[in-house]
Amino acid sequence: MLIQKELKIYSFIAFIVIVTGCNFQQPDYVKVITATELNQLMQKEDIVLIDVHTPEQRHIKGTDLFIPYNEIEKYQDKLPKDKSTAIYLYCEGGPMGNAAARSLYELGYHNLTNLRGGEGAWRESNLPLE
User: Fold this and answer.
1) Fewer Cβ atoms within 10 Å of its own Cβ: the N or the C terminal residue of the chain?
2) What pLDDT is attached to residue 5?
3) Which regions form coiled coils (predicted)?
4) What is the DSSP letter of 45?
């Protein structure tokens, strides 16, 4: 009987781990873009591209600003005044870009895009760095 209870408990724990592990979703306030898509967009349009990685790293060629992901509010004066302006973010791999997007969203910016895979994906695609 004790073994059946333990088995049920372990089964329940495994179920919870599987369900919660599958629940990660990209936040709905930020879109994602691939390195190739971002490069194509940069060839056609003048965009606002912000590196948010800490510590500072090599930048994607064409980066407009470096603002640490955890200091967005401190640099509000550097951000576009029009909060509907499209802002493209990147870090080394993606998570700091998502964190920066959350801060920007909380400041009223709603046209946010993060580079999937960050600067690492850009580099793997052999695209130019500064």
Assistant:
1) N
2) 53
3) none
4) S
